[in-house]
Amino acid sequence: MYKRTPNTSKLTKAFIESKISQEAIVSKYLNIPMEVVQDCINHGHLIKSVFRDDDYNKSMGIIYNRKGRLKVRDFGGFGFFDDVYGVVAYVLSNIYDRPISTDNKQDFYFVLKHIASTFSDNIEGKVIDENVDEDIVKALSKGRSKKAIIEIAPRPWNQQDKAYWKSIGINLNFLNANFVIPVDQYYINRVTNSDSKYYYKESDPCYAYMLGQNKQGIYLIKLYFPFRDRSKELKFITNCNVLEGLPNLERNDYDYIIITKSSKDRLSIGSHLSSTPFYGGAGDKLHIGVINLPSENYKLKTNEYEWLKNKLNKNGLIVSLLDFDTTGRCGAKYLYDNYNIPYIFITRGEFGLYNYGGKDFSDLHKCYSIKQLNQFINETITYAEIKFKAENSQVSYMQRLSEFNLPY
Length: 408
Known about the structure:
By secondary structure, the protein is of the alpha+beta class. It folds into 3 domains: 13-144, no CATH class; 150-238, no CATH class; 246-402, Dna Topoisomerase Vi A Subunit, Chain: A, domain 2. Helix content is 36%, strand content 17%. It has helices at 13-19, 22-29, 34-43, 84-96, 105-118, 120-123, 134-144, 159-167, 172-177, 263-275, 302-309, 326-339, 361-364, 370-388, 397-402; strands spanning 60-64, 70-74, 81-83, 150-154, 180-188, 198-199, 207-213, 219-224, 236-238, 254-260, 288-292, 312-321, 343-344. The radius of gyration is 26 Å and the shape is elongated.
């Protein structure tokens, strides 16, 4: 990949930046057009992350800090936050298949040499080569295929934790059984970035959902920050995009499997069902499993549906319980159209429908007693037994929505 390195006795940041702008380095090594880099800087716009498949749509920013250092930050699952030299170190780590850190003196000098070589024409006053080196393109692609390694340092449960989870109907024993861990600190890719990304504070607790391991042995983790304002900070940081709750789906004879839209709802429903038995039309105790989609826009795959279907008994049924907003209705339509999965919603008075006072099951714990919630569940089971399991009783999604003239 190297061009010749300019003849300098000693490369320094000052020398590099006297010849090449920080914007040019970021543009080259992240394969982002210069005008996009400058738009991010000038207007604070976010763009799709180059570090991963960006399910959050636009979650990477480029901006100068008060010290005049250009910073690149991925606000999503990757957790990258570094200056232009950290950017180059990241790319070189993927090119050379070894950790390269700017904290290491030799590595940092290697980074400077690589920049000087890449921009040798510019340094020597020649025309800038606007083409991105093939090795950089390959390195970025390789990086996107990698799972970020999230490591957590747990802490003990405290009274604030207990109060928060109790408010949505979940006890600490159930959290422990479902691999939820209170976090004291967490790290992302600690081999190349040894700084902790977070330290526990009462005003901003963090909880880790442990979701299993991939074939490479990397733990799949979603970090949840319940008190954060979604418009200002990320409430979730994750290194995976998988169905959640599968490790606890232990039976092969479920009467129902509920697909909901969040970990919080899965845990709230699951905790409630674990503490209260419910019965079907024949008087038998029902076995009900709960999982959740990793995001509201996630599309269930055929092999995932078949796996879930094989966890049911011969009369079992998969049902979706998503939010009654546009995204949730579209998600329910997808599941119904593709897999004939019927749906139920918790409504808040939209389109003249009943107002339950909450948008999801965890919200209902703030509005109703346990007795009332049990009544809702029993009524839903009765409805499902009659409507969903009765032969030829299914009505198409569009027909049912057209009764209320609902958009989807």
